[in-house]
Amino acid sequence: MAEPRVVVYPGSFDPLTLGHEDIARRCLKFADSVTIAVAHHPTQHKDRLFSVVERVEMIEECFADEPRIEVAQFTGLLVDFCAGRKANIVVRGLRAVSDFEYEFQMALMNRALYPEMEMVFMAPAGKFTFLSASLVREVATLGGDVSRFVSPPVLRRLQERIGG
Ligand code: ADP
């Protein structure tokens, strides 16, 4: 039998948006399972809204209906995390040309570090191309309504954290 096709979808997910969810669910069309890998960089506290534990919990709640999507946290190099799990497909979402240059550089660096790994770039549904976690954080912090951009478990935590 063929090896299961395991996809890793890494990011900071602070917090998970409907754009992230769209990409993760799309991956199930070609993957047997998707691991959402929440990056935990203890030195990078700047602009952080949720702890890594909170982010993992929220993502688990959002995908409670989908046993093929699991959530993990990682520190250090993504390639080490992937090698440890014998996962060699990494998915990243591309919203616009502005994402491309950084992603392309990262893809080639990751390949230099771990030649077995392939990066797959996916486009979200058009209605999510303008969405980013940082914008959701900013709008929510300023009192705006972000209920169209995140799932209910994320909205609830945002309301608890920010009030309103
Ligand atoms: P953000 O860029 O929103 O702060 P992350 O750093 O957590 O989010 O991003 C993780 C991955 O998800 C990246 O590949 C990023 O390009 C992708 N992504 C983020 N938002 C979207 C979206 N709205 N549509 C598609 N991909 C997205």
Structure description:
This protein is an alpha/beta fold and 164 residues long. The protein has one domain: HUPs (Rossmann fold). Helix content is 40%, strand content 18%. It is built from 6 helices and 5 strands; from the N terminus they run E-H-E-H-E-H-E-H-E-H-H. The protein has helices spanning 18-27, 52-62, 78-84, 97-113, 133-141, 152-162, and strands spanning 6-11, 33-39, 69-74, 89-93, 118-122. The chain has a 5-stranded parallel sheet, with helices on both faces. Strand 2, helix 2 (52-62) and strand 3 (69-74) form a beta-alpha-beta unit. Helix 2 runs antiparallel to helix 6 (152-162). The radius of gyration is 16 Å and the shape is globular. Bound molecules: adenosine-5'-diphosphate. Adenosine-5'-diphosphate binds at residues 11-13, 17, 19-20, 23, 92-93, 95, 99, 124, 128, 131-134. Adenosine-5'-diphosphate binds next to helix 1, strand 4 and helix 5.
Radius of gyration: 16 Å
Tell me the name of the CATH homologous superfamily: HUPs
CATH topology: Rossmann fold
Strand content is: 15-25%
**Ligands and ions found:** adenosine-5'-diphosphate
Kindly report the average pLDDT value.
Answer: 94
Tally of DSSP β-strands: 5
Parts with pLDDT < 50 across at least 5 consecutive residues:
none
Task: Give the SSE order as H and E letters.
Answer: EHEHEHEHEHH
